[in-house]
Amino acid sequence: MKLTIAVSLALAGLAPQGVAAQSATLTPAQAVAAAAAPGAGPVSGTFEFQVGSTGASGYDVYLNSDADYHAATNLTVVLHAEAVNALTKQLGGHPADMLTGKRIRVTGAAQRVAFPRRDGTQTFQTRIEVATADQIRILQ
C-alpha cells in the first residue's frame, strides 16, 4: 500500500523530493513525467522499455527508448565504461549494436538533465546513469 501511494504521488509530482518508486517498474513516459515534476529530484526505481535507438560518445553508450533521442518522451540509459566493457563480454558484441530493438530493465535513478542542441539552444533529456552491468537486464 505504501509503495502504491509513493508511486502515485511521485508520478503526480506531489511526493517530497527524493521519494520515488523502489520496486514498481516504470515506463519511459512515467519516468519522464516523474522527473519533470516541479521540485522533483532523481526518481529511483526500475525502468523497462524496448531500445528504440542507440548512440555512443567517447566511452559512453546511449540506449534510447525512442527512435528520436530528442523526443520529449525519450528515456535515455547512459552506459559508462565499466558497464559497456562488461556488457560487451556478456553479449559478444558492442552494446550499441547488440541492444537495438531489445527489451531491457534498468535499475537506477532517472533525472532530467540539460541537453545542448546543435543550434546552441538547450532542451532537457531524462537519463539514467548506469555504472555497472548489474544495473541492466536484457529481457528479450
Strand content: 35-45%
* Count of domain modules: 1
The number of helices is 4
Provide the CATH top-level class. Answer: Mainly Beta
Give the radius of gyration. 15 Å
Structure summary, number of beta strands: 8
In the CATH hierarchy, the architecture is: Beta Barrel
What separation lies between the terminal Cα atoms?
A: 31 Å
Enumerate the spans where pLDDT stays under 50 for 5 or more consecutive residues.
1-22
Assigned CATH superfamily: Nucleic acid-binding proteins
Specify the helix fraction band: 25-40%
Biggest beta sheet attributes = 8 strands, mixed
Rounded mean pLDDT is 87
CATH topology: OB fold (Dihydrolipoamide Acetyltransferase, E2P)
Going by helix content, strand content and strand pairing, the class is alpha+beta
**H and E string:** HEHEEEEHHEEE
Keywords: Signal
Signal peptide: 1-20
Describe the protein's architecture and organization.
The chain has 140 residues and is α+β, with helices and mostly antiparallel strands. The protein has 4 helices and 8 strands. A hairpin with a 2-residue loop joins β3 (53-57) and β4 (60-64). It is globular. The chain starts with a helix and ends with a strand. Residues 1-20 form the signal peptide.
Search tags:
140 residues, alpha+beta, OB fold (Dihydrolipoamide Acetyltransferase, E2P), 8-stranded mixed β-sheet, 4 helices, 36% strand, disordered N terminus, signal
